[in-house]
Structure formats: structure tokens, C-alpha cells
Design brief:
Shape: globular
Strand content: 15-25%
Oligomer: single chain
Bound molecules: adenosine-5'-diphosphate, magnesium ion
Radius of gyration: 22 Å
CATH class of the largest domain: Alpha Beta
Strand order of the largest sheet: 5-4-6-3-1-13
Order of helices and strands: HEEEEEHEHHHEEEHHHHHEEHEE
CATH architecture of the largest domain: 2-Layer Sandwich
Distance between the termini: 13 Å
């Protein structure tokens, strides 16, 4: 990828660019916890975006997407938003940097990537983080703090791409480190690195390649359930700001005051916050079997309590269990996308073969398989 990018940069601009890269992400555990003020536990992966870039002495940006074979040129004022959707990510990062008092001047860039688009690995965050990091290095002496870089990416999605996302994806992409997952407290912004060296295991995503339409309305309903449950608990325990602050016992106290549905949703969330902590403990002991078991518990919760799974994902999860895969769960918001699986190396080939064959037989299309390795996030090459 590097050679292709530099070659294109030279042919367009007659010199070499400076190389920067960032990465997509997985989330090992901690799903639907972000808006409940709980933990997420992501890491950057070996799929990313890379750019060659160089200031051009003007007030214009000229950026070329190798993957789309398209060039976009734009100025740096609010009214200069480009028409190409992919270029809005780059433009947004420039604008959000400027809005925060950062400096951005004209530049030339050529970029490419290998994060599958829309598969739940956050190619968009990889793109934002690459440019946010590069702009900080090239024009701002790296004075913008890393957390702010993540927020620049998040605000780009909100204000220039129409996606109201949380902070996890950009956070993981900016802060990611090889061999480490990062536990982020979504309420306080505190984070901590944990070692992730699953020796003898592989981490593999199986993409069902389905997206059920329910996703956005169901998401809002889940949020409302959580808010109602938190409000009920708060009457007895005023310190409960978010649902994740509640103890399981406190939920039981209000069981008769809330609907059974709200109770189940809250039961999942409170359990999930604890599971993230349990997984962190297990990782410090190198106990990957416990990590895997927690992943299955999360899947059960997402499927039966939170009810955001679907037939395709439950099928993949059940097959994993049957084939003695150590851990498996739906990753992301639900209703489609990938399962993330922790598989012993000796079982890997058989599991993947069976998953692809049986899934295809049942659903009429093949799933996609991505082997992931926890890798570095945003960086200069
Ligand atoms: P994801 O879940 O992968 O983040 P999104 O829909 O949020 O999916 O973001 C995908 C968008 O990001 C693409 O439609 C494109 O505009 C941009 N993008 C991601 N990767 C690339 C790439 N390699 N080249 C150009 N644009 C990209
Ligand atoms: Mg995205």
C-alpha cells in the first residue's frame, strides 16, 4: 500500500509525501455501555488507512482517494464543503481543527486503506484519525492533545457526515497500541491499557454481511429503556447518574416499578459493565478462556435480554459454541454485522470452514472472514 501511495503522490505532485497511518478497531467487550456511562474495551487493528501528505503553500487542499480513484479540491472555510462524501471526512477534520483554534494550511494528499467499509470496523474513524494526527504533526507541533484529536474525528462525523456516533471508534483509532486493548470509561474519559497477547489463539471476525433495518429505531428504544430504569433506581440512590452506576441489587429493588422489558434491558447493561471488569482481570492473569466465556455471556445478553441480535448472528454464535470456540459474540450495535471470535489455533481452520459452509447453505450468501491482530493506531511512519 505504501509504495502505491507514494508512487501516486509523486506522479501527481512531483515529490514525496510524508506518510501517516491509522487503524480500524474492534471492541472486545462492552457493548451498548457507552451511552450508559459504562466501559468499552476497544483496540486498534491491522486494517487501516494510510496517507502521503505535504503542505502545498496555498490555502487549498487537494486530496486523492486511491481506492475510489477520485480527486477532491476544497478550501478551508465552512462554505467550502466538498461534494464527494469521502472527502467530507477530510474536510471535517480540517474544520474541526480550525474551530478548536488549531492551524491548518493547504496540503496535497494521496490516501488508501484496507478497512472494509461499513463492516463495523470503523473505516471512517481510521480515515479521520489519520488526517487529524497528520494535521497535528504538520501544522501544530503536536500541541493538540490526543483525546482532542479523537473528538475532532467524532465531531467530523456529527457535523459533516451526519453520523451521531460516540467517542469509542476515534478514541481506539488514535490511542491504539500493538498488543494492548484500552478500557475507556465513557462517563469520565479515564482510560487504561491492558495487555492482549492471546498466544495460541486467533481473533477472527465473521461478517454476516447483513444489516437489518430495525437498527436505528431499536437503538433509540433501548436508550429510552435504560434512561427509565436509571431514573427509577435514582429515586432510591441519587448517586446514580447513568445506569452503569447502579448495582444489580438496586435494579432488583425497582423491579415492580418498571416494565419487564426495561428490567431486562437494564439487567443486560449492568451485567455488561461488570463483564468488562472481569475480562480485564482475566487478561492480567493471561486467562483467555475466561475472556471467551464472558464473550458468550455478552452474546446471550445482547440476544435474549437486550434483544439486538438476529438469526444470522445467533447462528454463528451457536456454531462457535458447538465447535468449542473459546469465545464468540455479536460485535457492534446489533441487527447484523460481525461476530467476534476467540479461537484456539488448532480449531481455527475447521471452524472457519464450517462457518462459511453452513452459513452459506442456510442464508444463501457467504460471510466474510477477517483475521484481526491488535495493532498500533494513529502514527507517523
Ligand atoms: P464504517 O463502519 O466502516 O466506519 P462508515 O459508513 O461510517 O462505515 O464509513 C465509510 C465511509 O468512510 C466510506 O463511505 C467513505 O466515505 C469513507 N472511507 C472509508 N475508507 C475509505 C477509503 N479507503 N477510501 C476512501 N474513503 C473511505
Ligand atoms: Mg463509521
Amino acid at each position: 500500500m505504501k509504495a502505491k501511495i507514494q508512487e501516486k503522490f509523486e506522479s501527481l505532485f512531483g515529490e514525496e509525501g510524508i506518510l501517516y497511518a491509522s487503524a480500524g478497531r474492534i471492541n472486545l467487550i462492552g457493548e451498548h455501555t457507552d451511552y450508559n456511562g459504562g466501559y468499552v474495551f476497544p483496540g486498534a487493528i491491522n486494517f487501516g488507512i494510510m496517507t502521503a501528505i505535504k503542505p502545498n503553500g496555498t490555502d487549498k487542499v487537494k486530496v486523492y482517494s486511491l481506492d475510489f480513484d477520485q480527486v477532491s479540491e476544497f478550501g478551508l472555510k465552512e462554505e467550502d464543503k466538498p461534494k464527494e462524501a469521502w472527502a467530507c471526512y477530510v474536510f471535517g477534520v480540517c474544520r474541526e481543527t480550525i474551530k478548536r483554534g488549531g492551524k491548518v494550511e493547504g496540503f496535497n494528499a494521496v490516501f488508501a486503506g484496507d478497512v472494509p467499509l461499513g463492516a463495523g470496523l470503523s473505516s471512517s474513524a481510521a480515515l479521520e484519525s489519520t488526517f487529524a494526527f497528520a494535521i497535528n504533526d504538520l501544522f501544530n507541533d503536536n500541541k493538540i492533545e490526543k483525546f482532542e484529536l479523537a473528538k475532532i474525528g467524532q465531531s467530523t462525523e456529527h457535523n459533516y457526515c451526519g453520523v451521531k456516533c460516540g467517542i469509542m471508534d476515534q478514541f481506539a483509532s488514535i490511542f491504539g497500541k500493538e498488543g494492548s486493548l484500552i478500557r475507556l470509561n465513557c462517563k469520565t474519559g479515564e482510560y487504561k491499557y491492558f495487555p492482549f497477547h492471546p498466544k495460541g489463539y486467533k481473533l477472527v471476525l465473521i461478517d454476516s454481511c447483513v444489516k437489518h433495518e430495525l437498527a436505528s429505531s431499536a437503538y433509540n428504544k433501548r436508550r429510552e429503556s435504560c434512561e427509565r430504569a436509571a431514573a427509577a433506581i435514582r429515586k432510591n440512590h441519587p448517586e446514580v447518574e447513568f445506569l452503569s452506576d447502579a448495582k444489580r441489587l438496586w435494579l432488583d429493588e425497582v423491579r415492580s416499578e418498571i416494565t419487564e422489558e426495561d428490567f431486562l434491558r437494564a439487567e443486560y447493561v449492568i451485567g455488561e459493565v461488570q463483564r468488562v471488569l472481569d475480562v480485564c482481570d482475566a487478561l492480567e492473569r493471561d486467562d483467555y478462556e475466561t475472556v471467551g466465556e464472558m464473550m458468550y455471556q455478552t452474546h446471550f445478553g445482547l440476544s435474549r435480554l437486550y434483544e439486538v441480535s438476529c438469526e444470522e448472528l445467533d447462528f454463528l454464535n451457536k456454531l462457535a459454541r458447538k465447535m468449542d470456540v473459546s469465545g464468540s459474540r455479536v460485535m457492534g450495535g446489533g441487527f447484523g454485522g460481525c461476530t467476534i471470535n476467540l479461537v484456539k489455533e488448532e480449531l481455527y481452520d475447521n471452524f472457519i470452514k464450517a462457518a462459511v459452509e453452513k452459513f452459506t447453505q442456510k442464508f444463501g450468501h457467504a460471510p466474510k472472514v477477517y483475521d484481526v491482530v491488535i495493532s498500533d493506531g494513529a502514527r507517523k511512519l
